[in-house]
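Q: For a teaching session next week I want to show students how multiple molecules come together into a single three-dimensional assembly. I've collected the sequence lines for a complex. Could you give me the predicted structure tokens for the whole thing so I can convert them for display?
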Amino acid sequence: MGETFQLSFTVFCPECKEDYNYRVFIDREKYGLLQEAEGITSFFFDHGSHFLEVSLNGKGNVMEVKAVPWVQAPEGVSVWRRNSPYFPVPNSSVDTLFVNRRKRVYCDVNWRDDALSFLPLAESGRNAKYLVDGKEYWVLAHGSNAVIIKRCELWKDDVFNRLSALMKEFRGGDVTMDPAFQRIFLSVLEASADDAYIALDAARLMSDLGKTVAINLDLITLSPVPFGGELVELLSSVEYETLVDFLVLSANGMRELIKLLKSYRLLKNLNLIKIIEE
Amino acid sequence: MKLKLYHKTKEGLGRLWSAEELANITYTSYLTLIMEKIGLLSFLETPKGFEDIEEFIGEVRRRDLLRNLLEVSVSGGVLQRNEGKFRVSWDGVERLKSLKNQIDSFEDGDVVYRAAETYLPKTALEVLRGAEKDRSSPEISLTYYWHDKSSIFRLGREMLLMLGGGRRLKGKTVLDVGCRFGAEPSLILEHLGYDCRLIAADFYPQVVDECMQKEVNKDGEIRRLFELENISFVTLDPYLREPFPLDDSSVDVVYTFQVLQWYSSAHRLIEEFSRVLKRKGILLVGIPLKEREEVTAQDVFYALAGGYRGFTVKEFKDMLKEAGFTRIQIFRLSFVKAKKR
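A: Of course. Below is the structure for the complete assembly, covering every listed component.
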């Protein structure tokens, strides 16, 4: 057995109204996770009708304690936790499930089926296509993140590879929690029936999330096409220097965001938008 | 062939203006627009000397270029000169506008005109004040982007292809130098029924990147250029310190449209064209040439936009001959075909 670390803590369960003393042993790998940049990890304790979620920081201090209703996991699947997005997620007609395997969390705001029964599809961490009850489901995975999508009939087969490319460009943390990622991804899915290349175009913007850009609004405003109308409004609504994520979150609905995704590469290639901070 | 080209030109331009007439009206119009936008025409409501004009523009470092701008504006009738002082001729401006309206092609070419109106006044001011501009600056990039959308430029590209033998170029290896945002490669591919090996080259990686994403309709299906098997992309060194990344005698045709007037090192480019062309390979060049050596409105326009200048027919022919080209044909002072010896 490898090296293990012991953590002890006392927590109050708001559901049982009682204090509990816990001692957990974790191996090097899990301890390593605890030390990661975010510095927060969660442990789950079975309290019968509910489970207690205890979040610890990198020093082993208790940061948060929550009583969460128990969800029966399907056989072979460890406990998954449902995340609600912090930011409103646009309504998409495409069933989409955002998953983070390492954190065992998912976000199902755009999923109309039973999420838990589909989560095992993401376990392998590989891109794959599955047929479930005669319907095609695509799993797009990168690192610990995955997105499960119910394929739209109007999509061409190429869309799968292009969505994989889009997924790979995301260098943020957790797709279940990242509003910019979710907005981009859902908009791309919505537009992919009409525009098979939208995922490739969006990948350019996806790779710039977290970076700061300068926008040459004067020149953009002087161009009646192809940057006119809504896109100019969007670009005018943000600061001259802005975080790309903020640009995405400032888009007024999918239509506007799709315009941004379609034009972003050209705007950069014309030097009308420049990265000023990586 | 010349008859075909004649008809194609007439079809595109409505009436057959001489190449010099057309260039003069077009470029004097652009320059007048720039002078209007930077407030110079209003400033010249009352006669002003060169120093006053210099002071009005401020921090002028390219005095030669400013002088040339004033000279060609006098020749074009937009300015009048009296006892060394310049004054706007509103009658001349009106005459020019009326001529511009007579050129039907301006209806289509209006996007180019609008680009000049929109992006270039600021660039012109900066160039006069000594700034170095190249085609990667946003203003010039945008102007080039407009060119890709212009049907007058499309007509020019088609005519150059026609001069090269049109569909007889099928199956050949074609190097397109200055592929820009993809309008040129897609036109070549469409004209040759996608039956050629095309190398799309430009001097800026961001331009090549955009070109790769250009959508074409091949066999009823929308594809992007980078997905086609018979096209490859190369980025060339804009300062030509490095030769083209292509082998000697590796291409059948070099096609370059409205590129050479941007480079003072045009002769180096022509040497490279010659090096990569096979023996008896064809060089096709779209370039504004002039008969006389005097500075023209076109020269001033390119210089103000960060480019170089036009070449005289003799100068250009000499460069071609020196680089090993023969059987040089020039059509309407704009289209050149030559063969490598």
